Amino acid sequence: MKHKLLTFFALLVFAGFSYAQDGYEYVVDIDTVTNPHGVAVDPDGKIWYASHQDSIGVIVLNPDLTPASFSPITSVTIDGTEHALVNRLKGVEVDPNGNIVIVMNSVELYRLNYQDGSGMNFLNLKTLPNNGDSITSFSKPGIDAAGNIYIAAVSPVNNAIWKLDANFNYVSNVIDLQDPAWWSRAVEVTPDGKDVYIATLWAAPRVIHLHSDDGVTYEIKNELPEPEFGFGGQVSSVELDKKGRLWISDEGFDNQCYWIYDFATASFSQLKGEGESAMDLPRGLAFSPDSKTIYIANFNSGRIMKWALPAGPSVALFDDFEDGDNLNALGGTWQLTGGLAGSLAFEVVSSEGYNSSHSLHVTGSYQNWPGAESTLDASSSPVDVSGFNGIQFAVKAVIVDTLRIRIREQKRVDNGTYEFAKFDFVPTAEWTIVQVPFSEMVSSYTSGPLDPAFDATDITHIDFEPFKANREGDFYIDDIQFITDITGIEKDYSTLPTEFSLKQNYPNPFNPTTTIEFSLVQSGFTTLKVYDVLGNEVATLINEELTSGNFKTQFDASQLSSGIYFYTLRVNNSVLTNKMLLLK
């Protein structure tokens, strides 16, 4: 039977103490350059880095580790002036728009467009007040959600941490420092700009925490706790992850690693390699957009290392509803509640199951949402799904305009309410698998970004609600799963492929859309790209890890001119290319 898939959008022990090893595993070195001093990953998953010593410019790799079309970037022109991006990388960070903010030539701050590598902003940091002209080397910047930039001095000793606005204009000194041991190679800041973390060097390696109640006036709040034995060497890199944990590099020669400090539990875990995965003066770390991959720049060995979370399975939440009103899953007991003042009715039926004998049949109307109860309720035992990237379910509609899925956490957010993550979609009359990445869900209250406190650690409710039009519905739900693998294309579940293949697009010639089908006999990082006759890349249709299977995707050439185009499928070390004709 063919179904459619829709997507919108180790323990280390030493000297009697032990630390949990964070879940990432070493994969491969993606490159080796002389003394890399930072690394960043843009929203497309491209990896950006440069050398401290060699004049190689800024290197940019696609997620499949092939060079970006504009790499290396050796110079940029900004406001009519050409600037050479030579070497002396001091740090690199991604701003709220995904663009790259980088310190090159020791004292020059640039913003580069992440899509094409062009120059956007420039500032000679030696023009900063408070002795900026005496500084010979600046730190990796930290950037808050408003785009403000926080930067310190590496050498010589200076008593200022500077704050710039999103346009590189000087705003203020965050604080005046008095301790010369506070030389710093890296600064990190929370999205709200109220907490600043400084990685310190030389005499007293540690992390200093500055806090501001108003984002203007900062004070020293504390020094962060240290691991049992303290930091063994210089602390040169600090990065916050999406969970709010602070990753802290340690250049101690007998224990080079990243410490991960969890503010919620006031505890450390550790990421440390051995043998071929051993770190060697780690001075930069960056996360892929989905946080499943990290890249580490090792200054001494020159290695840019790729680490990744092991591929996790999808976890079935309700693969069959035959247990009736009480369903046990992920450590929680879920109940079917009466809906909105009884206006939605739920029943378990045996004739319309998707992959099982039973499914959930929902009928009725969705009216005044205040005081609503949810379709599936686990309030008595919330579940933690923070290790997953989205939710997947099968749905078939009899009568419904738009269907809304909402997920609620138990904890309240800053404004005292519960945060609901929502997503609206239009179901069909056939069983369809719908994947909803958490990253595509928005706040049910504002339809804007989710509250930062929403982290999927204590989910209590999953709602399926008819929405829009008359808010009446008659639909079926089955096979609900929290998943790690978000595909983004249609997948045919009816047969398993026997060969690696790329079919001829159809229709061909076409105007302006066409369908491309292909088959993978094994899993691997997959790209499907379109090129013009000159070899210029004009579209990236797929750029992600895929499992084996038969796939289908659409190509929209409405912005292209008539002519011959080539589409190339790459997975692991295999490549296939076909030709197509666009006629307008």
Describe this structure in words.
- There is one protein chain.
- With 584 residues, the protein is mainly β.
- The chain folds into three domains: 28-308, 6 Propeller (Neuraminidase), CATH 2.120.10; 315-483, Jelly Rolls; 490-582, Immunoglobulin-like, CATH 2.60.40.
- It is 0% helix and 49% strand.
- The protein contains no helices and 51 strands.
- The strands form 13 sheets. Strands 1, 31, 34, 35, 37, 40 and 43 form a seven-stranded mixed beta sheet that branches.
- Strand 29 and strand 30 (303-308) form a beta hairpin.
Topology at a glance:
Blueprint lengths: L3 E4 L3 E4 L2 E4 L4 E8 L3 E6 L5 E5 L6 E4 L13 E4 L2 E4 L6 E4 L5 E5 L3 E5 L6 E6 L12 E2 L3 E2 L5 E3 L1 E3 L4 E5 L5 E7 L7 E6 L5 E6 L6 E5 L7 E5 L14 E3 L5 E5 L6 E6 L4 E5 L10 E6 L5 E6 L4 E6 L6 E4 L7 E4 L2 E5 L7 E6 L9 E7 L10 E2 L12 E10 L2 E11 L5 E8 L6 E6 L4 E2 L15 E9 L4 E12 L6 E3 L8 E2 L10 E8 L3 E8 L5 E10 L2 E8 L6 E9 L2 E9 L2
Parallel strand pairs: 1-40
Antiparallel strand pairs: 2-3, 4-30, 5-6, 6-7, 8-9, 10-11, 11-12, 12-13, 14-17, 15-16, 16-18, 18-19, 20-21, 21-22, 22-23, 24-25, 25-26, 26-27, 28-29, 29-30, 31-43, 32-33, 33-36, 34-35, 35-43, 36-42, 37-40, 37-43, 38-39, 38-42, 39-41, 44-49, 45-46, 46-49, 47-48, 47-50, 50-51
